[in-house]
Amino acid sequence: MTVNEICLLMCEAERRAARLMLRAHDILTENKTGARDVVTEYDRRVQEQLIGELRAALPQAHFFCEELDEQEKLDSEHVFIIDPIDGTMNFVRGFSHSCIAVAYASFGKTLAAAVYNPYLDELFHAVRGGGAFLNGRPIRTAADDLENSVVCFGTSPYRTDLAEKTFALARTVFEHSLDLRREGTAELDLCSVAAGRAGLSFELHLSLWDYAAGALLVEEAGGVCRTAEGKPLPYTGEKSSVVTAASEAVMREFLRLAETVL
After folding, report:
1. How is 11-52 classified by DSSP, letter by letter?
2. So what's the pLDDT on residue 70?
């Protein structure tokens, strides 16, 4: 299969799996690492359906997924990185702002991405070198500087030790931007940057499945992705801070501000 065919497969699989989310009722939660870190039967069912469809089309593929008990190798030729429901707390509480995110990688390099928000019927997709798209239309990051940008951020709720730094940074960025948004799903924050809605997004602690798809979308839309220290994002499975910006200029301004806080 070509990368374009794999991306199409991912998009179609996400649309089918999203029906489970839209039909959800009487949602029960289980705590993983704590009260803020929850999983539902729908997270597992969406993941199982995605893995089943993707494995049927590409039997040799490996999987790195949020709800897998044992992760498979990331440095393989064919790897799918899956967050079955990014924004699970939003999903549980009825905020209708969650998504399914799938990235396809080969030997540690992300080649395709698909992120689907079923509540707005917005499907973002990208193939490396081919641009980024929303519902089939090309998207680009915004041309604004930080002062004229809306900023999305996450609170890293599973790491309360990072709260002081997170909110100090949010205050600093707020004073140098138009406004802040805290929407509860990292992948959709990154999609907002890719689509030109926000000029910047940041969170101090994320897993690979929280950003693999969205980061490729941002890059293919003309933006840049770094850690909060200005380093390249890791793709080996460790958790990381993640910053995405509409341009190098916005990224430089954020990193300058971050130096005063972090």
Report:
1. HHHHHHHHHHHHT--S--EEEEEETTEEEEHHHHHHHHHHHH
2. 75
Which residues on neighbouring strands pair with residue 202, listed in sequence order? 153, 243
In sign, the C-alpha dihedral spanning 119, 124, 53, 29 is: negative
pLDDT at position 33, please? 72
Q: Which two tokens stand for residue 122?
A: 């917005």
Alpha-carbon distance of 36 to 44, in angstroms, equals 18
Q: Which amino acid is at 129?
A: G
| Contact present, 235 and 219 (Cβ < 8 Å) | no
What percent of the chain clears pLDDT 70, i.e. is strictly above it? Answer: 99
Residue 38 has pLDDT above 80, yes or no: no
For 163-222, write each residue's pLDDT tens digit. 999 999 999 999 999 999 999 999 999 999 999 999 999 999 999 999 999 999 999 999
Residues of the chain with CATH 3.30.540.10: 3-139
Does CATH number 3.30.540.10 belong to domain 3-139? yes
Give the residue range(s) of CATH 3.40.190.80 domains in the chain. 146-259
Plot region of 177 (φ>0 → left; ψ -120 to 50 → alpha; else → beta): beta
Tokens found for residue 6: 């794999």
Angstrom distance (rounded) from CA 15 to CA 158: 29
CATH class of the domain at 146-259: alpha beta
Q: What's the CA gap between 80 and 147, in Å, rounded?
A: 37
What phi, psi does 169 have (nearest 5°)?
-65, -40
